[in-house]
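User: Hey, quick favor. My workstation is busy. Could you predict this chain's structure for me?
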Amino acid sequence: MRKIRGGLGTAITWAVTWGLGGFGLYSLLHLVTPGPGYFIPGVLSVVGISALSGFVGGTTFSTVLSTFYSRRSLKDLNPAGMGMWGTLCGLLVPAGIFGIGSLVGLGFEVAVGTITLAAMGTFGALTGYGTIKLAQSGQPKLEEGDSDWMLDSGE
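Assistant: No problem, here it is.
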C-alpha cells in the first residue's frame, strides 16, 4: 500500500509540475508568435496534455525506481542518472503519440514535434532530477532509527 501511495504521489507531483511547465511554455510561445487562435482554448489543451504526460511519466518513473533501485538508499541514487531516467519516462507519451500517428498516416508539423519532444524530455529530466534531490534533502532531518530509507517492496 505504501508503494502505491508513493507512486501516486510522484505521479500527481509530476502532473502538476508538467501542467505548470506547459502553461509557461505555451504562454511564452503565444507571446512570441501569436497565432490566429485564442489563448484560453489553446492553453487549456496544452496544460491538459502536459499534465497527463506528467502523470504517465511520473508513474513510469516511480515504477522504474521501485523495480531497478528497490534495495538502494536515497543517498546511493545519483540525481543526474535519475534525470536520465526522467528524460526517458518523459518521452513516452509524445513518442507514442507521434509513433502511432505516423503509423496511421497522420501528418505532424516538424516544428510542433520538435518543440513537444524537447519540452517533454526537458520536463522529464528536470522532474526526475528534482524528485531525487528533494527526497535526499529531507533525509538528514530524520532521527537515527526513524527510517532506513530503503526503496523496499512496501511490506
